[in-house]
Specification:
With 318 residues, this protein is an alpha/beta fold. 42% of the residues lie in helices and 14% in strands. It is built from 14 helices and 10 strands. The longest helix has 21 residues. The model has no long low-confidence stretch (mean pLDDT 95).
């Protein structure tokens, strides 16, 4: 399954594991890389010394390409970037900010750069900044999301029209069928978060994983739009956020309500009532907690099977 994404990153399959806060540690990233995808460490929930430790453990656990996701709205960005360069990380995915500030700096140090966006306008900004690849993330996603609320099915064709850069689709992708659909719309590969958050190697708390495995449609909602939009599971904390947003709370009130360490409390420590629980809409389709190897095998076999079935049935489609 060779294409521009596999060639760019030196991987077997055009499957990138999202660098999710509190889920994407060295065990998850190295497992995805070892099974043909590109594993990413989630620097958004790591202090510089923690990131350094995870990078070193990843390098011991795999000899395959791996990377680091850096949300640019988090503190200590300069220190994180210095660690990344010192440890010779080959690939960086930046998100939640402008690609202009860090792309050239990283590339000058031999690092490939992909940037996450949620509109064709910012895809063009990525091209101007000279990124190596773009991740177009639709409204369905769980992490830092676009305020435009454009779905993946609408976003990918628009971004494909706006840029010729290698393109990854993200948001609502948790199976091989969705992977093929995204590529039919113009993507060169996919970035998958929620499905990998629900694996044995994910560093998320077991209680969080079990909760997500039991979610149904409508169990999540895009929230905190006046800060940095994230999709939250509906729990007690979400109810307070929702009430505040419904009555028009400003960004400062929402910031105080969020406080510090809220995502860690829920996703990493397993406090399911008061924690900030981020997950994508696709979680409603996930009801197991398999090993990464099983997820990768399933993704590729589903992708190949549906592609074969569509080819066999082509004469009946028109």
């Amino acid at each position: 399954m060779q294409n521009r994404i596999t060639q760019l990153f030196g991987i077997k399959y055009p499957v990138i594991q999202g660098g999710m806060v509190w889920c994407s540690g060295w065990r998850l990233a190295s497992a995805v890389s070892n099974h043909g995808g590109l594993g990413l460490l989630g620097a958004g929930s790591m202090h510089p010394e923690t990131l350094q430790d995870h990078i070193r453990k990843t390098k011991k656990a795999t000899d395959k390409p791996y990377g680091v996701n850096v949300p640019l709205l988090y503190p200590q960005i300069e220190e994180l970037m210095e660690v990344i360069v010192a440890e010779k990380v080959p690939i960086v995915f930046t998100s939640a900010g402008s690609p202009k500030k860090w792309t050239k700096w990283l590339q000058e140090r031999g690092i490939l750069v992909a940037h996450v966006i949620a509109s064709s306008y910012f895809a063009q900004k990525c091209e101007e900044a000279g990124v190596d690849a773009i991740v177009a993330e639709g409204f369905e996603a769980g992490g830092h999301n676009g305020r435009e609320e454009t779905t993946t099915m609408s976003l990918i064709p628009a971004v494909r029209q706006a840029t010729k850069l290698p393109l990854l689709a993200a948001g609502g992708i948790g199976c091989g069928q969705a992977m093929l659909a995204a590529m039919a719309l113009g993507a060169d590969g996919v970035q998958i978060g929620s499905r990998f958050a629900l694996t044995q190697e994910s560093s998320a708390h077991e209680s969080f994983k079990q909760l997500v495995a039991g979610l149904r449609e409508g169990s999540t909602k895009l929230s905190l739009k006046k800060l940095a939009p994230v999709r939250l599971i509906k729990n007690e904390f979400f109810n307070r956020v929702n009430e505040a947003e419904q009555r028009g709370a400003d960004a400062e009130e929402l910031r105080l309500l969020l406080g510090k360490g809220r995502a860690k409390l829920g996703m990493f420590e397993g406090q399911l009532d008061e924690g900030e629980l981020e997950i994508g809409q696709v979680a409603a389709q996930l009801n197991d907690i398999p090993a990464v190897e099983d997820v990768m095998n399933r993704l590729i076999s589903e992708y190949e099977q549906v592609r074969h079935d569509l080819a066999d049935g082509a004469n009946f489609l028109f």
